[in-house]
What we know:
Largest sheet: 5 strands, parallel
Number of strands: 11
Shape: globular
Radius of gyration: 19 Å
Low-confidence stretches: none
Number of helices: 10
CATH topology: Rossmann fold
Order of helices and strands: HHEHEEEEEHEEHEHEHHEHH
Strand order of the largest sheet: 2-9-1-10-11
Mean pLDDT: 94
Helix content: 40-55%
Number of domains: 1
Amino acid sequence: MAQMDETTTQLVAQYQTPESVIERLRSVKAVILTGITAAGKDTIMNDMLDDGRFVKVITSTTRDPRANNGIMEQDGVDYYFLTIEQAAQKIKDGEYIEVANVHGRIYGSLVAEYERINTDGKIAMSNVDYQGAVNFLNFAMPDLLVLFVVPPSFEVWIERLTGRSGGSLGGNKEDIINRFRSAEKELAHALNDPRFVPVMNFNSDDTAKEIIDYAANGTSPTPESINQAHQVIKDLSKSITDYIAQLET
């Protein structure tokens, strides 16, 4: 697919969520998972899909479908694949919750997708970065739950990171420092924003069951479990800071 022209690029850059979309979202029931990279969010979401009450939100993109492990991506399953013209029209019509320019392609979340899932009697579920999660929280949605997924320790987190990269952290020293600084920032926000519900991910199956209990059954984490998770966040943040300092010496 073609790259965006300057007019469309500006359209994306200047987009702000319309009040009409925010109003529509206030009738939506949704659970958002956020957290640092390699916390296990995608695995947890896949486990939650087995419950049947949750449906993963499908985002839109203007890039071409591509093969993953030899299987070609499908429209309406992996993404909604739109032309630039279609995406630009949806921006003009104010249909996006959020939209972004990623390497010249338009990516975004459509309010109609959340409504579609709820109309089917399901709970919309998405994996959003912490800044996007803050945007959702600021929409004052009464049936929104934002969970910050936390690895149980620095050592486990490093194991998960290196497992993704074939036994190494991947990238050069500068890349690693930048990724770790991003994790520091995310952890600091989770620690200081009480709207983020921390959930420790010892294993994805148990964590999925815990989140399902919160999101579908209306239970709440105990103060003890929140304090325990916050302590893990503090310890993890300190270990990351120390690790960065070692890399920089």
